[in-house]
Amino acid sequence: MLGVMPQAREEALRQKPADVGGPRQPMLIVDDLVKHFKLTGGAPGNRPVVRAVDGVSFVVQKGETLGIVGESGCGKSTTARLLMQLVKPDAGVIVLDGEAVDAPHGITIRQLQRAVQMVFQDSYASLNPRMTLEDTIIFGPRAAGKPRVEARNAAHSALRMVGLAPELFARRYPHELSGGQRQRVNIARALAMSPRVLILDEAVSALDKSVEAQVLNLLQDLKESLELTYVFISHDLNVVRYISDRVMVMYLGKVVEVGPVASIYESARHPYTQALLSSRPSMDPKQRRTELPLSGDPPSPISPPSGCRFRTRCALAEAVCAEREPPLADFESGHMAACHAVIPGSGHSLAAKPS
Amino acid sequence: MVSQPYDDGVAVDPAGAPPVVRSRNFWQDVARRLSRDPVTLVCLTILVLILVIALLAPFIAPADPFKTSMVNRLKPPGTPGYLLGTDELGRDLLSRLIYGGRLSLFMGFTPVLVATLIGGGLGILAGFAGGWVNTAIMRTMDVFYAFPSVLLAVAISGALGGGVFNGLLSLTLVFIPSIARVSESVTIQVRTQDFVEAARATGAYPYQILVSHVLKNVTGPIFVYASSLISVSIVIASGLSFLGLGVSPPQAEWGLMLSNLRQSVYVAPINSILPGVMIFVTSLCFNLTSDGFRSAMNVKG
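Output (structure tokens, whole complex):
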């Protein structure tokens, strides 16, 4: 099942920006990204802040899919918006293929936004109800300064790439499409910019299961044929397992664990990741869970707990967890976790003693 | 040829050329919905009729609206030669009503049109820019908004003196804040939608987003709101004339006519009511028409 027409693919590859840093240079390097939202109310100068993203660092290699998972409010979507510079970070560095964004000698935010595109969760709200699909898709290339004819061709080939015949769909309006078709139009809109990175923020979460599978397969096809790099944000652990090469787990604005997909799903080290994974419903009635793996809501990101942020809900919490924040420590082959219980010499009773 | 890999696409006939699908656009949809709404259609017809009659007044009016006749004062409707009777100076009431429509409609439309351009512009700017621009514009509007509209119109007209121009000016100033406020809230609603975010993500400049994404979605609601103000404008304009602040005699204007004829309300009640009936019918039709458009365009709120 090949969703991409050969000519459309060739055309898209021809328009692809050059690989600047070579295959070994990571596509994205994110270092210590911070975003605190100021709340209104309270005395000026002493307004409470929501620590939505609080020092997040990660790397996305060329051609890989990084899955980001976590509960609602853990900062997944804010991270995506920071990556796109839709929200300005308070601190932190983003490096796209070896070139720092919005820094001296680096690339501008506009250049970043042309190379990185995003697909949103709500397929209906992310299409202008008053514009035909063609006009919606054309808008990006036109804004980037492409002539009208060229932009139209790019829009039509993008529609073809997502399996929608332009002859049938170009002149339609969003309300005339099904949810799956609309989400494919959103993908086409992103592809028309010839991006190198696609950020998929809960892009399949609102679709029903059969359509979700189609769109996931389409995304896999597109990734291979257009040599794309994905950042795939979702709360659906099975979908993330299916599509990702590496997985990053976030909790209250911080990265708690990151590693290759098999290693995370089979030998999670952080208690939060373990709880998340065991919260998935089991198909085996003998494996029925009787107690909740995690109870309660995460603490408020306005005043997060001291030390380890997960300690208030963690079964393994000890005194050291409240005193010091666990660093993201490297284990084997790129599997990193931030938990005192598994970091040797941390002072936690379960941790290995330093030799 | 395209193989349809996904089942929710429309199948393309592999032999023939695919049909080009062109959908109804937004305005065609609105027209279709309006055509099924008899109340709006009737009101719209009445409005068009009033407008045409007013515009063609010199050709339609049976008599000179300014020609007085001391003998034929306050004749009842149906008097030969005077279809709707005469006013307190013996002028033909039908002709005066026809001519009066010109000024009344003019006083209804113009302030709303000018206020929509100014207030709408300010509101969209405030809503789209946000931050201190929003604060500066909207708080200034709030100052004007604090006064009841009729009181404000009377106060401004009173300060500037009577006359058509000052009447228009005061009405325009009265409508700017409310239109600005509606425009601002509609713009903010549109600005926070995902499709604007998606447009920003393409690296487009703010004015490009404003023109192609925001304006298209805010003009409908603003237009509907403005059209509902026309009736208010006619009523307030008539009120100003009634108080002697708008149009001055002997000009024909419904509000002024009502004001002059009210002294004769016990002598010739029907004659006295007629200008009021015209004001009532016109503003009612404007209100119902704008309501019809509101639902046909699916504007919420």
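Residues 93-129 of chain B form the longest helix (37 residues).
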